[in-house]
Amino acid sequence: MLVTSMKRISGFVPWATSSKSSLKRYLIMTSFFAGFPCQPFSIIGNRECLADARGNLVWEAVRILERKQPKAFVLENVKQLATNEGGETIQKIHEALLDAGYRTDYKVLIALNHGLSQKRERAIIIGFNDDSLDCFIWPKPKKSYSPLKDILEHDLPVRNFVSDRIRKSRHDQDHAINLA
Known about the structure:
29% of the residues lie in helices and 16% in strands. By secondary structure, the protein is α+β, with helices and mostly antiparallel strands. The model is unreliable at 1-13 (pLDDT under 50). The protein is globular. The chain has a domain at 27-145: Rossmann fold. The longest helix is centred in the C-terminal third of the chain and has 16 residues, at 164-179. It has a four-stranded mixed β-sheet, covered by helices on one side.
């Protein structure tokens, strides 16, 4: 269903949509970009991290990297990936990527600081299977962005807005941070 929808909408067919995808038909891969389900790591999710089956899909990305050995990769997820379990989750991922032959680095980037009108904080993991990491420079924050009021449509239906549960969760989290 997902592959059919993506092909119909964009003409693009993703090469992998599940852990059952075959890698044999893809002979050469020079770079790899992937995200994996965020619910196991997110403040809105269950925070079971790698104990959640969806959280274990990161190992599928590692398997692909190990088998296809692209020169570089980028993995992304919610910012809590970097802090869950006292940093143990990101350390396990780092060790698996190191075992797969990659030198890695990670950083939490905030989309707002890079020209987007959204405070979307994402953990970005980058890796190289050579010495390119020594030359890699993380992007510097930009000073400006377009305000959301200049981008968003007006008079949107209520269903397009965040739920009360999520709004309260965010408010409670922000309040706790401000008290600390």
